Amino acid sequence: MRILIIGCGSIGSVLAKAVHDMPEVDRIYVTDQSKDYALHLIESLEKARYIDNVNDNIVKVLGEVDLAVEAASQEAARKFIPFVLENGADVMVMSVGVFADDAFREKCFTLAKKHRSRLYVPSGAICGTDGLHSASAAHIQEVHLITRKGPRGLRGAPGLTMKGIDVDTLTEPTVVFEGNARDASKQYPKNLNVAATVSLLGMGFENTHVTIICDPTTERNAHTLVVKGDFGELRCETQNVPSPMTPSTSYLAALSAVAAIKRILGNVWIGV
Questions:
Q1: Could you say which of 8, 41, 103, 118 would form a disulfide bridge with 32 (CB–CB 3.0 to 4.6 Å)?
Q2: Ranges of each domain in the chain
Q3: CATH of domain 129-248
Q4: Of 34, 36, 30, 40, whose CA–CA distance to 70 is shortest?
């Protein structure tokens, strides 16, 4: 397998190092807005090659790769996902919040079908998505996501600016957002991709309720998923270690991408 990784931040870095050690992967291409950063990442990765972050260069590579992984931002996802699908390659999306835009989501899903490409969305930084997926085969009454992060994990989010909230001045746990997953994904584009993943698996962006708490007493990125339906009730809590490189990103999100690629490469799928 040959893989293109778009974005060399906390997720892309973990992913590049992990897939480099997979015998089934014989070439890794990486691209990033920062050429120096990308080159530094691949210094010790013999299978890796850097390509300039421009469409013409990526087109050439897409003719060789089996899978492109977007691990950069919603902006990058908007630019590259349709482009990759139109060129017939499979794509894995980490900035899942981009799919809160219904028109863009349908465009990508249609392109995947038209070009017979696969579009993968890993579980990300949350547990319980397997149960939610199974529950969605019958009637679901409620999906509620409660996210709790420290100031470092939320700092700079547009939603905070809209409300004039300075997280560094908070002295106790404070609800900074209450609403649906669509608004959460737009107001916290780098902080809450799990809201989009949960929405896609369950009741959709409008009907998935999201609560975001800024907690100055915690160093973890915590997600509690509550699902109620015909199956009964599910309550799953994930206490994530933040990425040292990007505190808004949880280490588990990167590991979910690694696990997804292992699953793609394998012949046995457990927990489908």
A1: 8
A2: 2-124+253-265, 129-248
A3: 3.30.360.10
A4: 30
Nearest-angstrom CA–CA distance, 224 and 19: 30
- pTM for this predicted structure: 0.93
Question: Tokens standing for 74?
Answer: 């919603």
CB neighbourhood size of 39 (10 A): 14
For 133, the token pair is 């997926």
Return the SS3 of 175: strand
| Each residue's pLDDT tens digit, 252-271 | 999 999 999 999 999 888 87
Does the domain made of 2-124+253-265 have the CATH classification 3.40.50.720? yes
**So which residues are the catalytic ones?**
223
Query: What token pair was written down for 176?
Result: 């900074």
User: Which residues partner with 149 through β-bridges?
Assistant: 214
How far apart are alpha carbons 20 and 28 in whole angstroms? 7
